[in-house]
Amino acid sequence: MAPKYVYFFGNGKAEGSAEMRNLLGGKGAGLAEMTNLGIPVPPGFTITTEVCTVYYTNNQQWPAGLEDEIRQNMAKLEQAMGKKFNDPHNPLLVSVRSGARVSMPGMMDTILNLGLNDITVRGLVEQSGNERFAYDSYRRFVQMYSDVVLGVPHAEFEKLIDEKKHERGVELDTELTAEDWKDLVAKYKALVLKATGKPFPEEPWEQLKGAINAVFGSWNNPRAIKYRELNNIPGDWGTAVNVQAMVFGNLGDTSGTGVAFTRNPSTGEKQFYGEFLINAQGEDVVAGIRTPQPIAALEQTLPSAYNQLKEIYQRLEAHYKDMQDIEFTVENGRLFMLQTRSGKRTAMAAVKIAVDMVKEGLIDKATAVKRVEPDQIVQLLHPMIDPDQKLEVIAKGLPASPGAAVGRVVFSADDAEAWAARKEKVILVRSETSPEDIGGMHAAQGILTSRGGMTSHAAVVSRGMGKCAVVGCGAIRVEEDKKVFHVNGRVIREGDWISLNGTTGEVILGQAKMIEPRLGGDFATLMSWADEIRKLGVEANADTPHDAKVARELGAQGVGLCRTEHMFFAADRIRAVREMILAEDSEGRAKALAKIEPMQKQDFREIFLAMEGLPVTIRLLDPPLHEFLPHEEDLIVELAKEMGVSAEALRNKVESLKEFNPMLGLRGCRLGILYPEIYDMQMRAIFEAAGELVKEGHAVHPEVMMPLVGTLAEMKDLRRRCDAIAKETQDRLGVKFAYKVGTMIEVPRAALAAGDIAKEAEFFSFGTNDLTQMTFGYSRDDAQGTFLPVYLQKEILPQDPFRTLDQEGVGKLIQMAVAEGRKSRPDLRVGICGEHGGDPESVKFCHRAGLNYVSCSPYRVPVARLAAAHAVLEEKKA
Question: pTM value?
Answer without folding.
Answer: 0.83
